[in-house]
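Q: Start with the shorter request: fold the first protein.
A: Done. Sequence, then structure:
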Amino acid sequence: MKSSHFYYIILFSFLLAACKDDGPGEKENSDNDVPSVATNTWLLNSLDNIENYSNSDPENRYDINMVRNEYESVQLVIQTDSKKRLKIERIGNNDAIEFQCRKLEAFNGKYDVLIPCDNEIEPDDKVVRAWLTFKVKSEAEAKRHKEIIRFKTDDKEYAVAISINVVNASLPETPSIASVFGINPQNFIFTGLSEEQKIEKRKAASDLLLEYRISPYFSTWLSGTMKTECFSSPYAWNDDRTWEYLADKRFSRIALPSHGLSDDELEIMLNKARETGLLNKAFFYVWDEPTKTNEYEQIKTLSDRIHRYAPEAKVLTTFYCGPTDGEHKDDLFAVFDILNGATSIYCTGIWALQDNENRSKQCKAKLKSGQEWWSYVCMSNTPGLASNSTAIGNRATMWRNYKEQNSGFLYWVVNGFASVYPLRPRPELPEGDGILIYPGESFGTNKICTSVRLERWRDGAEDYDMLVLYEKKLGRSAALSLLNNVYKSPSNYTDQSKYALALRKNLIENITE
């Protein structure tokens, strides 16, 4: 009898242990793995100023609600007792959630550079500043997932627990709005690389931007002019790899080249784009910011050449003012009439909109059938992406796009350096303008480094997609009413992260099935 009881006790213990297992490939992590009281770690949301971390209490636990295909980041500060490198260990469900740790470093005096960490991170003056990013995979189960991240030396450990509640909703694979960002194909460190290795290096930058809900394109200004040659593939137009690459569903739009092609080559390329079903996504960006009547005439000539072989092809023109000469001098809205038939995507700099939403409405009112209105930011526009724009301003760039209903957003270039060796920004531009990624070689890695501003912009792009999903369920007026809690106009939006995060929380709650 006693041996029988002992047998059932052992069996019950085994079954109890089995019940605690969450299933194949995942083991539930207990918060007991992390100290109950945080003493030297701080967790901050992605919008807070990490330099002010000591103004808040230490924290080693953080809760996030997320949808599938979404990225979300948490800032971490650790005050260490030495300058030793810390090994990074993660316990989590790799099948559901991707994880990346990056070190946060300064460039030109501002914490903006995110340097990929492999398995370790080095403190600066006994302080670790890290950016922890989680991405929910498209097939992730809707449930709570627990992450334990440990930072260890030989004799010390710092641990944080991140609880991620995945809800039953997903961001679309193809973004709801065309966000096209340029890459300067020459601004990489190519020393000692073969031509094929140079292509792969450019491709790595393009691949990276695709992860940020961006349709990238390589942009070259033709010497001495404002003509631009733009192409969304790192390969040549007649390389078979181009058409496979451009078929990636994450591209909402693709740029095709024209200046460097003969008439025969242009016709062949357009036929190939048509055959592969990509011509409807394509645009030609042939001239940047025309200001004179003779420049408009040249755009018409360039467009006529493209339309000779593909009447349906779309030509994009950026502009920030009306003509500076001729009968339509200083009339911004005359550009829509002057280029009618030649341009089908009118892309207006927000500087020209003067923070006046009525001017956006006037732009849309000028459109004819089959035409689109886009906008772009550059220089020191706010909300925008230069360093003068706040963290919330980086994110609010896409709130503005949703409210003003443009169908595309353009950013001129992400690596607009004066030189990459040594790494120097262009002195004639506002700080941070044209710099959203950094060459890793300047920061001790062979991987491209992104900026904090780009991370915050992506959060805004995800907000945009959630607003679209919210609108589909509850209507546009309800979505605008919700957005109005944080964004009223280009010069009137919240400066407190808690309200921006409340917007996201409300969106997630209402799009969950």
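Q: Next, the second protein, separately.
A: Sequence, then structure:
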Amino acid sequence: MTHNKDQLQKKIAVANKTIPADLVIKNGRIVDVFNGEIVEGDVAICEGVFVGIGNYEGKTVIDAEHRYVSPSFIDGHVHIESSMLTPNEFAKVVLPHGVTTVVTDPHEIANVAGTSGIHYMLQNSDQLELDSRFMLPSCVPATPFENAGATLASTDLKEFYSHPRVHGLAEVMDYPSLQNGADWIVDKILQNNHHRNHIDGHLAGLDTHAINIYRTAGVMTDHECKTEEDARERLRRGMYLMLREGSVAKDLTSLIGAVTPQNTHRCLFCTDDKHLDDLIEEGSIDYNVRLAIQLGLSPIQAIQMGSLNAAQCYDFKQKGAIAPGYEADFLLLDNLETIDIHEVYKGGRLVAKNGSYVGTESTAVPAPAKLTDTVHAPKVKADDLRIPLNDQASASIIQIIPNDLVTKKIVGSVNVVDGFFSPSAEKDQQKLVVVERHHNTGNIGVGIVNGFGFQSGAIATTIAHDSHNIVATGTNDEDILVAIEELKAIHGGLVVVKDGVVEAQLPLPVAGLMSEQPYDVVNNQLHDIHQALTRLGFANTFDPFLTMSFVTLPVIPSIKLTDTGLFDVERFTHIPVEAQPTNNPDVIPSD
């Protein structure tokens, strides 16, 4: 934050009690995230900044009525696109949950539309009550083994470093390239270091040797830990640990035991990928804070992780605390244990009250035409979906793990009809299809997936991390084909089909990832999607669309499907659908 001379002199005068503050909070209990205490006193605000704690008079007075005055929350790593909302609407959803700053990586839209997508996200998030800080996508595409809509070199990213809300390089996902010191990733790291000093990591399934390499390259964070020992090893080597609670990846419970009084200052929260309905019903970082308290962390420690720690991680020197010189981003809490948010303030302005957004209505920047016409694929035919198998009826299968991004590679018996794989509800085996949708290449990857539990029908979406091709799964080819064609007709989104009929759809015409509709309209459409899923016999124990969207990400173990075929993440190579027959025809985990 910069000041001109008059502003600084005014703030000093208010701090000195020479003139009244713009705003004073009285009768509040202040959450001191530095000492881990609750203190009492007036809080003075001038020009959107805290300038004093003590006895102050103000032009406007807020009577906190003995509520807790807490710093607001910072999401340390989030992909706004995963909410299926534009930044303008996303802000209205997360602000009532106490999140006033997010660190976002627009690599979803960048994988579809390159620099045009990044420009759009920056423009659409400008002048909002939510402060959106950007990390530049480091790996577009995520790997060279698939087809995305764009390829971003260091020269493509250079222009963005002049933007005041760009703070570094986003999650480095292509570990083999980093390990080998590939020119393209080293160039991006060196360019970032010339302009900024922060690089995020993505160490899914990697060992301590990999941590050494990431830290040597200057990577500071990881949000892909699965065990307490994973967390300790990252902290031991100087990383910041992000405890993630998203719609699929829910890691906080398994990691919280690694957080101690000695290392808390290196721990923060993030959501990464969270769907709109989960944000509305469950919350954002406020949910992480609440869950951490339920799991035994002290409320002040949990709030510190949700505010000051995230600010310090990203070198936001004036965020994350109720103290002079810090931005007046704060919450009034009715209850410290349950994080009941009464009001949310950004820069001293009331932006949310009792769970509703009450801030300024900004004019959204509409998406340009090239961002709303991004689904380009030839017509898919039934023959394109065939999976030829030998008479032994044994095949490589992707086994999903509900509420997890990791998949297992298994080898098992499958149904074969006329030499081709046939889905089986009894065995919980469905067909999985990925169709390249950016360049009309005609590439189609096909595979077998276990764990969705559909009794009939098919689903399809253009949200398929990170290249965002079309991905579909179903119990029969006919419904899969209808779902794919419907996606093309609505320019991307989510589709549910049964018996050849479209049961529900959620159009996401902005890059096939986001809707420009108000968030409540999108939420209603999402509700219709979930209702339609029950008609497929789905048990609704996890989010099948979000789960399916990560079955295409070839940087998270252990087996995925891209437009170029099945991919073994651990060996970083393609594999055939067919597997050698085994003595045991039952499902056998590869590990």
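Q: Describe the second briefly.
A: Residues 579-591 have pLDDT under 50 and may be disordered. Residues 25 and 62 are 5 Å apart (CA to CA).
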